[in-house]
Design a protein that fits this description.
By secondary structure, the protein is mainly beta. The protein is built from one helix and ten strands, in the order E-E-E-E-E-E-H-E-E-E-E. It is about 5% helix and about 35% strand. The chain has an eight-stranded antiparallel beta barrel with strand order 1-2-10-9-8-7-6-5. A two-stranded antiparallel ribbon has the order 3-4. The structure holds 2-acetamido-2-deoxy-beta-D-glucopyranose (2 copies). One 2-acetamido-2-deoxy-beta-D-glucopyranose binds next to loops.
């Protein structure tokens, strides 16, 4: 089990936790710069309009057949919060670059895991906004991330009004200075996902 808090950049037909210096503009003229690993590997920037920037807090589960081999992903559970309006320079309530960069680590280290691990059949607590110390307004709850019955990574936003069914296109190692997790498990790879089919609402 990997306790995790990560950024997700959702744009039409693509989800990514990161991208190398990709630049995106929305209709209000804000330029969103996706994070870069700073290393030789990179993910392509999505080339469709940005829909949301989310923080997910939850777990990713891996299994491995024998000791020493890389684990394979078997599921994930996360509660998603919409942090688009906190993007530096995007409006009156936005964060400084330093606070923005530290946001996922802050959520991971200072807020409770929003997963009911004792109730596998109903793992998510009732929807709630997330208060984070040092951030003036609670992060607005927007939905959940889970693997569906067919094992497809799914992001359900606004009660399924926006639904993203993803498939992995690329993964690259997280930067060396990425948060290593609550017990030093190590950062998971940064992923680039695209629509597997069945997505709803411009995702
Ligand atoms: C993943 O791990 C969490 C925490 O142990 C658990 O609650 C959840 O049921 C697991 N899910 C899967 C798909 O293995
Ligand atoms: C979260 O906060 C917004 C106001 O920013 C409110 O409209 C909404 O009902 C809250 N959601 C929950 C689940 O409490």
């Amino acid at each position: 089990m990997q306790l995790q808090s990560a950024f997700l950049f959702l744009s039409a037909l693509a989800v990514t936790t990161a991208s190398p210096l990709g630049r995106r503009c929305d209709s209000t003229g804000v330029t969103y710069v996706l994070p870069s690993t700073g290393g030789p590997t990179s993910l392509p920037a999505p080339d469709l309009p940005l829909q949301h920037i989310l923080v997910g807090h939850g777990v990713q589960n891996y299994t491995c057949a024998t000791t020493g081999v890389a684990g394979t992903s078997v599921g994930a559970l996360a509660v998603l919060y919409d942090v688009t309006s906190l993007y530096p320079g995007s409006g009156p309530g936005s964060l400084s670059s330093a606070k923005w960069s530290a946001l996922t680590s802050k959520v991971l280290h200072t807020t409770s895991l929003p997963i009911q691990t004792a109730s596998p059949a109903s793992p998510f607590p009732p929807p709630a906004n997330l208060s984070v110390t040092g951030i003036s307004k609670p992060l607005p709850f927007i939905g959940h991330h889970f693997f569906d019955l067919n094992g497809v990574p799914t992001f359900s936003l606004n009660d399924d009004a926006e639904l993203f069914k993803g498939m992995k296109v690329l993964n690259i190692p997280a930067p060396a200075d990425a948060d290593q997790g609550l017990s030093g498990e190590g950062a998971v790879d940064w992923l680039y996902l695209s629509d597997k089919g069945g997505s709803v609402g411009h995702l």
